[in-house]
Amino acid sequence: MKHPFKDAREGKVCRMELKQLQYFMAICEELHFSRAAEKMGVSAPNVSQQIRRLEEELGVLLFDRVGKTIILTDAGAILHEHAAAVFGHLQQAGDAIADLKQMQGGSLSIGVLPGDADLMFNALLLDFHQTYPTISLSLLETMKVTEQVLDRSIDIGVTIGPVIDERLTSIPLFHEEFSLAVHRDDPLAGENFIPLNRLRSMNMVMFPPDHQCRKLIDRFCMDNGFAVQPHMLTTTLSSLLQMVQSGVGACVLPRLLLDNLRNTEIKVVHLRNPTPSQDICLIYRSDRFMGYAMRTFIKNLRAYIEAAIRHSKSS
Predict the structure, then answer these.
(1) Domain for residue 1, yes or no?
(2) What is the pLDDT of residues 235-251, one digit of tens each?
(3) Distance, CA of 81 to CA of 181 (rounded, Å)
(4) pLDDT for 211-234, tens place per residue?
(5) What does each C-alpha distance from 299 to 38, 75, 287, 291, 314 come to in angstroms?
(6) Domain CATH code at residue 113
(7) Distance, CA of 32 to CA of 151 (rounded, Å)
């Protein structure tokens, strides 16, 4: 089968321009010449002209037009794969140079599952900002942590493991177990452990069904033959804990969080047979340059979690 970029195979150097590749990638994203032109801030005829020149240089068609629909040809798909790598390397080069210039600064965007910002990151981000004021952090709650790391919308993500993708580096952070939180005057407050199925007869306050913590608890309960009927729902961690503290009901939350609450009104009762749990990991693109901001944040995140685990074991 003849290679689509025949001139390159025959020894001719293709004189592709970076601007042409930028137009090409914009069309690949929009699948529409006019929208791609608008995105790039140029006229549609200008984009069409540059793509024609690129196709002439390569000696192949990059797009097929089926009615009003634009699709990539086989040659276009090959160019898209390599152009994405080119722009990825350029981004890495820019990041590395910016890191060299700043040395002690930089910026970092972090994606976490909804609810995890409250459950894990508030204290960490405050301490981190006080220690490293020249590093700018951006925290985003999203259900698409992995997808947004892959498309470079965010730099790193903290999500449920395992994440298996050769494009990603995954760092295990910890195994997260969940426990029951009750008011100190609750009859269960004196218990160290109770079986999970005791939850079916309790007044429970919980997150809504689409919250990732709620999904985990519902799944474990369903796997053991029952469903929890919440007495009350709330979307925030603070109100959930306030209702437990007020004696409205009990809730199930990560043990690491509960053991580090330092709230004398709330007692922690561990769940057994089984213990709801999940693995938490940190992910980033394997081809991403790891600058000062990322290295520093990952180091501090791991130290923060290790300290929380030590405190949990001693409490």
Answers:
(1) no
(2) 888 899 999 999 999 99
(3) 50
(4) 888 999 999 999 999 999 999 999
(5) 42, 43, 19, 12, 23
(6) 3.40.190.290
(7) 20
